[in-house]
Amino acid sequence: MTGSTPRSTHGAIPDPTPDVTSPLLSVQGLRVTFPGRRGASAARAVDGVDLDIRRGEIVALVGESGCGKTTLARSLLGLVEPSGGRVTFDGAPLAYSSRALKAYRRRAQLVLQDPSGSLNPRHTVYDIVAEGLRIHGRAGNERTAVAEALSRAGLRPPERFFLRYPHELSGGQRQRVVIAGALVLSPELLVADEPVASLDASVRGEILALLLRLRAELGLSALVVTHDLGLAWNIADRVAVMYLGRIVETGAVEQVLTAPRHPYTQALLSVLPEAPGIPVVLSGEPPDPSDIPGGCRFHVRCQVLGGGKAERAGVADACRGRDPGILDGSGESQVACHWARSAPRAVSPG
After folding, report:
1. Is position 304 within any domain?
2. SS3 84
3. 54 touches 20 (CB < 8 A)
4. Largest CB tally within 10 Å, which of 114, 165, 193, 336?
5. Do 119 and 177 meet the contact criterion of CB atoms below 8 Å apart?
6. Other C-beta atoms lying within 10 Å of the C-beta of residue 323
């Protein structure tokens, strides 16, 4: 698998090494629903997700547009209140009062995909980065903190950027300003939603390398939301593949992306330019989240079921009629697929 940056160096967390056995952030049975239009059933955007992110770990959340990735990411930061389940940060359940969320967001920060849309064009770089300090009442030594955040984000010398406006910066520089605005509060977790999607290919590698360096220098944890499996390969320790509101495969990035077990993961990987064999073209569009199919939610598009392999393995009825269940958030290699569970050797690529 190719990419614009080298694979991450695991374990590159500065000493003293924190306790990585307990998750920094943990999600149990998370559900997010939105009311249906004109009496229609509620849309189940996130439909039962367990996910752990450990200290110093980068997890990539991958899947098609509309699968629920961004809704899940926003719910982890308290921007969307779950309809069910629980989010726990550093051992404490996330509370949704304004005061509790304000305190939480000093420790967990969002990095958006479109720096042009997330930066106020009327504010200087200095004021953009300083905004978090002012909101959270940490304006003491503001100039030093802003300079340090810009420098960590790769904008050096930082004073050169203080009085610039977003339109005077390149796309890569604007994304670095967004990252600096997150770093200025010294968070423990970054949630990055498609952090390089709007950037030129030549700049993407620089931003990915920056995120890896921040993990190595600061011990940051991160959830990186992306549809780009190449990005996941280059930056993540672990990957979670999401389909129609639920994680359907998870495990170490090398394992999932070199030996995918779920037919959906196999289809996503098959269309990469360097993938061997014939690309898998899935039939139809993902079902409406207000009308999720029974059984395995992927079965109506599944190439394994449609091609007769599930029938030959004796699991076709289970695919159509039995929910494979919610994967736990432990990080172990897991797959929500009756066929993969029944015939693991049959799914190895090659």
Report:
1. yes
2. strand
3. yes
4. 336
5. yes
6. 16
Helices (H), the chain: 69-76, 98-104, 115-118, 125-135, 142-152, 171-183, 201-218, 229-235, 253-258, 263-270, 303-306, 309-312, 316-321, 338-342
Residue 18 lies in a domain: no
Parallel/antiparallel/unpaired status of strands 58-62 and 84-89: unpaired
How is residue 347 written in tokens?
Answer: 């799914």
The Cα-based distances of 222 to 88, 109, 121, 278 in angstroms read: 15, 10, 27, 34
In a domain, 278, yes or no: yes
How far from 233 is each of 19, 22, 58, 253, CA to CA, in Å? Answer: 25, 24, 11, 6
Nearest-10 Cα torsion for 176, 169, 166, 144: 50
Q: How many structural domains comprise the chain?
A: 1
Q: Could you tell me the residue range of the domain that residue 297 belongs to?
A: 253-339
pLDDT in tens, the chain (350 residues): 544 444 444 333 333 344 556 899 999 999 999 998 777 789 999 999 999 999 999 999 999 999 999 999 999 999 999 999 999 999 999 999 999 999 999 999 999 877 777 899 999 999 999 999 999 988 779 999 999 999 999 999 999 999 999 999 999 999 999 999 999 999 999 999 999 888 888 899 999 999 999 999 999 999 999 998 989 999 999 999 999 999 999 999 999 999 999 999 999 999 988 888 899 989 888 899 999 999 999 999 999 999 999 999 999 999 999 999 999 988 889 999 999 999 654 444 43
